[in-house]
Write a structure and sequence with these properties.
5 helices
Length: 131
Amino acid sequence: MKIAAILRDRVTIALAAAAMVGAGFFALYWPTSLNEYDPWGVRIQCGSGLAADFDQATIAEDVGTANSVAANLVAAPPNPSYVDRCRTALWQRRAWAAALLSVGVVVAIALLLARHRQQSTPPFADAERNR
């Protein structure tokens, strides 16, 4: 019963919607990186949800390719495509951040429309219904 009462409380719903919108924007601004390191031991950064930055991934790929060719390895290990992994990581970040952001916005708009509809009902509507 308490959960139903909490879900009917507009302030709680508005705070939850604001938290969703804030978390969605925060996720878009937060930098995205891979769980891998370039040849110099630095974690590979991919940019943020708003702007991609594949410079470090491209350089790490080029250095990895040059090292495997220079070493004349017969069976070279497959070169990881850091740029493709960065693209995938960014799209995953954008997908869940946009979903969280849009749900928060839809809930906030629904709250505003419900409040507007309650205020626009005529004051004597209840009296006419009770006759």
